[in-house]
């Protein structure tokens, strides 16, 4: 259950390539900025393509955030309690149709079990196997196996197809109009295309709307910072969209952090705090 709080605003940050930019991890300035936002009654949200267990592996239990939107919007978790606010899945019949499409398109893919067991997955090779696919399989070596899902598999949390062919994204979207198809860039090599497939309407933006409405937001200001294609929907939703200086995406209405600004989240948080401390009346 979402806990009602008198938040005055919301600040949402992507994780890989945005908050996680420094080779040593999260910068002290970014950490301090998130702490400060909490003192300003701003709800702090991480919105990431990572699964919940992956977020838990890289952020401490006392990390200064309030909620995590995981798997590109498929789950919402209250960070301090680890309570699951929302989760979506693909019924097995729908998942089997998606599997058929990915096989027809000759793509390498992984199908993950329903949350909270979505660390477990089954995988299938295409005729061409990107090195990045092998790299991701290595991360799931203890909880994955080669094969195909069938009617006994149960609901699926998500599919991840990995390819070096950008045009495959639109091919999958065209073939799967009844699912949410999200393009992302591999956090492992920074270039390979990941095609994430979820239940209809799953995306970061819709998860933000669900979360903020549940918290009682009406016209409170929203800010978000990101760097990749799976951040576009949330950046286009909020009042104050920020992108890091070396983002993979562009947009004239996005506020870009200064070049080589490692603590990009701190920069955006400071700018946003100055705005909400002023006389903001909505867009």
Give the arrangement of secondary structure elements.
Elements: E1 9-13, H1 28-39, E2 42-47, H2 52-58, E3 67-70, E4 75-78, E5 83-87, H3 92-104, E6 108-113, E7 121-124, H4 131-139, E8 144-146, E9 156-163, H5 168-175, E10 180-185, E11 193-198, H6 204-214, E12 222-226, H7 232-237, E13 240-243, E14 255-256, H8 264-276
Parallel strand pairs: 1-2, 1-12, 2-3, 7-8, 12-13, 13-14
Antiparallel strand pairs: 3-4, 4-5, 6-7, 6-9, 9-11, 10-11
Tag the structure with descriptive keywords.
283 residues, alpha/beta, Rossmann fold, Hypothetical Protein, Haloacid Dehalogenase-like Hydrolase, Chain: A, domain 2, eight-stranded mixed β-sheet, six-stranded mixed β-sheet, 14 strands
């Amino acid at each position: 259950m979402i806990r009602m709080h008198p938040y005055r605003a919301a600040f949402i940050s992507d994780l890989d390539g945005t908050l996680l930019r420094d080779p040593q991890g999260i910068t002290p300035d970014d950490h301090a900025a998130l702490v400060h936002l909490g003192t300003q009654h701003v709800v702090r949200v991480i919105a990431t393509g990572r699964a919940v267990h992956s977020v838990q592996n890289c952020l401490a239990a006392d990390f200064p955030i309030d909620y995590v939107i995981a798997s590109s919007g498929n789950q919402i978790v209250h960070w301090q309690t680890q309570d699951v606010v929302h989760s979506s899945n693909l019924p097995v019949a729908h998942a089997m149709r998606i599997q058929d499409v990915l096989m027809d398109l000759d793509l390498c893919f992984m199908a993950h079990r329903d949350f909270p067991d979505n660390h477990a997955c089954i995988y299938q090779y295409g005729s061409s196997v990107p090195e990045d696919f092998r790299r991701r399989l290595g991360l799931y070596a203890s909880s994955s196996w080669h094969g195909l899902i069938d009617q006994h598999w149960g609901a699926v949390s998500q599919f991840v197809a990995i390819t070096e062919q950008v045009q495959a994204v639109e091919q999958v979207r065209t073939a799967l109009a009844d699912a949410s198809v999200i393009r992302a860039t591999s956090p492992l090599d920074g270039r390979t295309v990941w095609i994430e497939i979820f239940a209809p309407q799953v995306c970061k933006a819709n998860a933000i709307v669900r979360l903020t409405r549940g918290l009682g937001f009406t016209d409170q200001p929203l800010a978000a910072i990101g760097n990749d294609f799976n951040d576009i929907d949330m950046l286009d939703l909020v009042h104050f969209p920020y992108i890091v200086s070396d983002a993979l995406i562009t947009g004239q209405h996005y506020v870009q952090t200064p070049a080589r600004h490692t603590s990009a989240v701190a920069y955006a948080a400071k700018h946003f705090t100055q705005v909400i401390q002023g006389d903001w009346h909505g867009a």
